[in-house]
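for the writeup, i need someone to sanity check this before i put it in the appendix. the sequnce is what the collaborator sent (i think, or maybe the updated version? ugh). structure was predicted straight from it, no edits. if anything looks off just tell me and ill rerun, i have time this weekend
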Amino acid sequence: MSQQSKILVVEDEALTGMELQKKLVLWGYDVVDIVSSGEDAVKKALELEPDLILMDILLKGCMNGIDAAKIIRKNKEVPIIYLTAYCNSETFQGAKITQPQAYLIKPFDENELKFAIEMAFYGYKSQLKLKKSEEHYRILAENAQDMIFIINKDLIVEYVNESSLKYLKLKREEVIGKPVQDVFRQQGFDGQVKSLQDVFKTGNSIREKSSFIFPDCELWLDTRLKPLKDDEGEIYAVMGISREITENNFQLNEKDKRKAI
């Protein structure tokens, strides 16, 4: 690993802390500090900005490692590996909340620790790339002129972009987590619900053109409904992208009228 990778060691046993430091330095890491209390762990994590924290759970002072990790994660994105002699279910469940990269039970093999650290750095970098990619697409969606929305299997709205909110004349908190019937109250839902259910049932995308009633206008929309799948291939939601075609539809109707004449 790079010499620039900084690790903060949080360990209440001084001898164990020094042994960890020797191993980490030998493996090419920079140990920025060794602290023995949860309070110092929070202070040093925010002050020194380590790339990784090795966190014992039972510490000196009033704050344990899990509580310290909760505070740190609220203020800074940093991978954490727990090194602890405590493996009871209650402790493990508490630790899970902080989403650690690993949970090693003492005594552990040094190769196990080395592998856990390498995987923590690799996994964390992958997470950052994914978040950056998701943020990129979120920015594109929020600035799109098309209306973009995501609806889950229970027909609950999970996402709408800024353009959708503009047409709906609603705030985001009035839409997210609400049933589609509560958000689009002026609509006849039989056709829309059937289209959503067809996507969930068949896994096929659907494209349809229809009129849609908004609070201050009625528009014709060209809507594409696309299934969203998890890693196991199960459909968990439908994403819709609607583009206004009112003017195009009006022009087509005018042509039809002239032909009739």
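The chain has a mean pLDDT of 86. Strands lie at 6-10, 30-35, 52-55, 80-84, 102-105, 147-152, 157-160, 206-214, 217-229, 235-244.
thx in advance!!
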